[in-house]
Amino acid sequence: MSDIYTSNLHVEKAESSKLKDVNFSDLAFGATFTDHMFVCDYIDGEWQQPKIMPYGPMSMEPSARVFHYGQAVFEGMKAYKDDNGDVFLFRPEENFNRINKSCARLAMPEFPKEYFFEGLKALINLDKDWIQPGVGNSLYVRPFAIATEPIISAAPSENYRFMIICSPVSPYYKGKVKVVIAEHFSRSADGGVGYAKAAGNYAAQFYPTKLAQEKGFQQIIWTDSSTHTYLEEAGTMNVFFRINDTLITAPTSDRILDGVTRKSVIQIAKDNGVAIEVRPIKVQEIVDASNNGTLREIFGTGTAAVISEISAFEYRDKVYELEDLGLDSYAAKLKQHMLNIQHNLGEDKHNWRYPVK
Ligand SMILES: *Cc1c(COP(=O)(O)O)cnc(C)c1O
Question: The domain at 3-169 falls in which architecture?
C-alpha cells in the first residue's frame, strides 16, 4: 500500500484492482464501482483533509441525520476516453456550481472548489483504466454530500460527508419511452427544492412513476404544481418539444432543474441555426399540435442518456403517438453532436471539454 501526499489530498491506494472481474459488455447502469472513492468530512465548521481511499462500505451511526431528514444532495457527470487514451469531463464547473447551489438550499455547507477539482482529477486519474474508449462508453461520476451528525432532532446537521464515487457505464439505450402527463402528482413546487439535486426529489417521484409504469408507460411528464397546465420536465430529465421545425423548452425556475445537457442542447441548436424558443409551454399546445400534425418530436435531456426520445404521451386517458423520424430527428442529430464533443471527435466551440490530466 502506498500513501501519497499532495498539497491537500491524502491518497490511500487499493491493494489490488477489481477491474479484471468486470464484464464491460454486460454492465447494469450504476451497479459497478471503481477501486477508489473520494471522501471529505465537515467537522467543527470546517472541511477536513480530503482523502482518496479504496471504495467500500463505511460505518455510520443510525442516528445520522441523513437517514431521518434526507439532508442530502448529489450530482451526475461523466468522464470519457478518446482513442488516444486521453480523458475528458464535460462542463464539470457546471456540476460543481450546481452542487453548491443545492447545498445552500438544503442548509448544507458549500464545498471548496480546489478540493472538488483536485479530488475529482486525482480520482479519475487513479481509476482511468476503468474508462473504455468508444462512443457511448463512459465513467459515470457521482459526487454527493450527506448529513452525518448523530442527532435526531429536526435541525440541520453540524457534520457532513462529501464523497465522489465512479461507475463505468456502457451506451445507455433503453428504446423510446412512453410518458403520462401528470395531472395529480407534482415533482416540485414554487419555493420548493425542485431546482436542487436533492436526494428526496427522486424518492418523491418513485411512487407516481410506478403507477405510470403499471399502466404501461415508462415515465411522467411533470406539469406545474398549481394548475397542471404547463409542461415542465420528463422524469428526471429536462424536456424539449418540436413543433414544425421549432424546438421549445420551458425556462428554468424553482420547479425546473437547470440541466447541463439542456443548456448544451439549446446552444448546439442555436449554433446550427435550429429555431429554439425558451418559454412556458402548455399541455394544450402539444395536444393541438399533435391533432393537427405539427408535433414532430418530444425528447428528454440529461447526463445519463444524453437524449431520450419519447414515442407517445397520454393525457386525460387519450394516447397521442409520435411518428418515428429515425436518424433525421433533431433528437438523433443533437445527440450525435453532443457525443462527438464529449468523446473528442468533434469541434468543441465553447470549450466544454475538460481534459483530466
Ligand atoms: C439531473 C437532472 C436533470 C438533468 O440535468 P443534467 O445536468 O443535464 O444531467 C434534469 N432534471 C432533473 C430533475 C434532474 O435531477
Answer: 2-Layer Sandwich (3.30)
Q: What is the pLDDT of residues 206-259, one digit of tens each?
A: 999 999 999 999 999 999 999 999 999 999 999 999 999 999 999 999 999 999
- Cα 94 to Cα 260: distance, rounded to the nearest angstrom: 7
Candidates 97, 98, 99, 257: which one to mutate for ligand 1, based on the most atoms within 8 Å of Cβ?
257
User: Which contiguous run of DSSP H or E holds residue 135?
Assistant: none
Q: Which of 259, 245, 264, 240 is nearest to 348 (CA)?
A: 264
* Residue 218 in grid coordinates: 415508462
249 lines ligand 1 (CB under 6 A): no
Residue 302 Cβ inside 6 Å of ligand 1? The answer reads: yes
Distance CA 49, CA 114 (A): 12
Q: What are the domain boundaries of the chain? A: 3-169, 177-342
d(CA 284, CA 315): 10
Predicted TM-score (pTM) of the model is 0.97
User: What angle do the packed helices 92-105 and 260-271 form, to 10 degrees?
Assistant: 140
More confident site: 284 or 26:
284
Residues 6+ apart with CB under 8 A from 354: 88, 89, 90, 91, 92, 93
What does the pLDDT read at residue 6?
A: 57
Q: Does domain 177-342 have CATH number 3.20.10.10?
A: yes
Sign of CA dihedral 125, 128, 134, 138: negative
